[in-house]
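Run Paraquat-inducible protein B through structure prediction, thanks.
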Amino acid sequence: MNQNTSAPEPAEARVKKRGNISSVWLLPVVALFIVVWLVWKAISEAGVTVDVQFQNGRGIKQGKTEVRLNGIAVGKVTAMAMSEDLKSVNVTLEMDRRMSNSLTENSRFWLVQPQVSVAGISGLDTLVSGNYIAFQPADTGIKRKKFIALSSPPPLGEQENGLSLTLRAKELSSIQNGSPVYYRRLKIGEVSSYDLSADDQYVDVEIFIKPQFAHLVRRNTRFWNAGGIELSGSLTNLKVRAQSIASMIQGGVSLYTPEWEQEFPEAYQGDVFPLYRDYDEAEAGIAVEIDFPLDVALGQGKTRILFHGMEVGLIKDTELKDDYSGIVANAVVRPDAVNLMVKGARFWLVKPSIGLHGVSGLETLLSGRYINMDVSSKDIKAAAPERHFKGLANEPPASPSAPGLHLNLRADSLAGISHGSPVLFRKMQVGSVQSHELSDDGVLVKVLIDPAYQHLINSSSRFWNVSGITLQGGLQGFSIKVGTLNSMLAGGIAFDTPDKTSNTVKNGTGFVLFNSVDQAHQTGQKITLIFETAEGLQVGTKVKYKGLVVGQLTGLKLNKEKGHIEATTLLKDSAEWVAQKGSRFWLVRPRLGLANSANLETLVTGQYIEVQPANRKDAVAKMVFTVEMTVPDDKPLNTGLRLQLVSDQLGSIRRGNPVYYREIPVGKVTGYRLADPASHVLIFINIEDRYTSLVTEKSRFWNASGVDVKFGLFSGAKIRTESLEALLAGGIAFATPEVGEPVSANHQFKMAKEADSQWLNWAPAISLGDE
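Sure, done. The structure for Paraquat-inducible protein B is below.
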């Protein structure tokens, strides 16, 4: 091994320069960037926290209950806590950041959970997924982080872009949340909520109409309650109406728009419409008002309006007038009957009636009461529109244009006649009484003669009352007159036509309705008697002359201007001579006294009027006379000697007092009056024919009334009276000293207050002549 081998030379070291930062530090930098990115991502994608206050926490679970929008989760419950007042629950929600712009004061939250009711089942999906909180975003309004949850879902109109309306009803009836809204039995919406109106007088029902059906609702659309089953009508006309099985169970609302009305614009959001109780009330038509008297009972239900048996309208409701003087019926008339709503149309209530005329309105026992209406063709042609009418309690008289002959009969009193009373010709009914009313001079009775019999009437026709039973006569005998059985019960009018050739009459012709057939056929002179009062007078009061009837009163009326009673009097043909100037009339009434009663027969036969005719050949005719209420004071008797006595005072002398001669009545007092001048009294007496020779120019008269009592200390008491009658009722006595020539009529004597003692001793032998 070579020892001399040299050792290798050492290698030269190379020095390299390195950077200031080592690559090892890159890893922390990358990690830092990752952390920053994660933080930024977490912050940018973090949700929005909001607080929602619920009434309770039932059905809400922290960390599980979602917040959904249109079925998509947009948040969840992160925390729950009781409120400070322990009356509610504060729920913290973490919402998707994308919802931040939609969280405004108009946003809504509510809990969705399964509900089962008559209206149906809602929230069924929550049975699988659990309850959730529904969110309704709103882009308008101030942004908020705190909200109060709704107790129930908001109306559908606020959830969808449909039409929300308010229906105002008097009562809720069967409507509830979710009740369907129908159009032609197709569901187009539903009831979303209901509540009392602001004034608590109505119920406001909120409904939602789906967007595709919103154009169906016009400003004149009518809504009605379509829930349940509606029964209406009567036993002969029963109506059953229902929309669907669903509406029968859960209630509902129907609507329609009247096609006959002009086109109205579409309804706007929030419009208010009335909600009617049923279809009949909602049915559109012409609104009219009918005023009925208080005694008309229309009932609580709807009342039909018929025109010749056809239904043309309906009375929907009634109310009292403001002054409580009647009933106002609010009615709706079908559009096709609008031509009947003119001036002259008449309305009256038809109801079952059983009376003397028979049975009427019997059909209403089954079909119910109804309103009948009538209008003449003349009024229809005139076409004067009217919307306010006066209703009647009973059927009115036939229209003036109705077929037949319309007549006006004037009577002093109704005397048993009523609406529907028959008009008879030879006891056969040929017409009927249509109406009656008071007039200035009595009663006006309107009758209608059937067209087939109107030829029986002409200007000579005479009408009289045949109502009931007529009794005529007195204590000496009487007669009974009756018409038909119907007229006895219900009243009636009869007539005849003496002259068949007389002129025909037209509608509206007036006739006098007499009280009896005898009065109707009386002919003679008519005069007018004027009375101070009608006491004791009546139509039929007799006018007599010497006990014979020469006329009777046919009418009584008050002359308001002059304040007296005017009596129309019909004189018999044979008594026309009574109507002459100078005739005097006075009323004969019963007079009762202690010993001087007179005219007692009038207590049975009734008062009558006595007449004293003028009996002058040159007397002129006179038609108006004033009747004295008592027998005239200066009325002479037809026989006997009429004398006048002059006295300072009347004393107890009265008409009818006896005149005595030797205590035997030979005459009587016929009257008295003040003399002219009024310094004394004239007393008229009448001496019977057979005693006229007892009165001569030397006769002396004195007042024999009462008792003549004389008393002397030595002569004692002397009591004298002419008679018991003179003691009770008064009287006059006279004496004659010697035979002489009888005085003539109207001779005047002075009457002494008492008899001279010499007069009582006179006893001439005066012959009375042949008896």
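The two ends are 240 Å apart (CA to CA).
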